[in-house]
Amino acid sequence: MRLFAALDLPNEQKRLLSSLRRSIAGVVWYPPESYHLTLRFLGEVRGRPLLEEIDHALAGITAAPVSLELNGVGVFTQAGRSRLWAGLAPSDALTTLQAKVETALRRAGLAAEKRRFQPHVSLGTFQGDPGPDIIRWVQNHNLLRSSSVEIEHITLFHSHKTNDEPHYEACADYPLSALAHTPLRAS
User: Is 167 considered catalytic here?
Assistant: First the structure.
């Protein structure tokens, strides 16, 4: 199973981000229900023992709820594949939570994440360099701001491979208060 730990966005923020979608040649927009903030990509996880360690590690994380505020848009390009994204306002609480997730998962037996944490929500993808329509989209939406919303749990998602758009299935929720934990659902 391809897994990642994330903060699932509330519907109000998903609606706001969905309103940014435009018909731009070559852009494949992700469905709004897939919008999330990845805290840690776990990759392919095989075997029940490791899955149980991950579940236990995430269930043990305690933190105050995290406030998220959308803040601008941009483009990442890596290996000929580009992504349109919405950024999030810097937050010590978010950085601390991501570090706790990283530490817990390393203790559970996963290798350290090699990429620096850059809080963003992926909105769509395209091949090659940004053309004038994409540059204009970024210019038109780079001042995006949302009201702040509190997120009170981490979600473990199963990423299903598809040919066109991503499909993510929530496997378990981990309240940041750690008082109540929804057990991992077997897939």
Answer: no
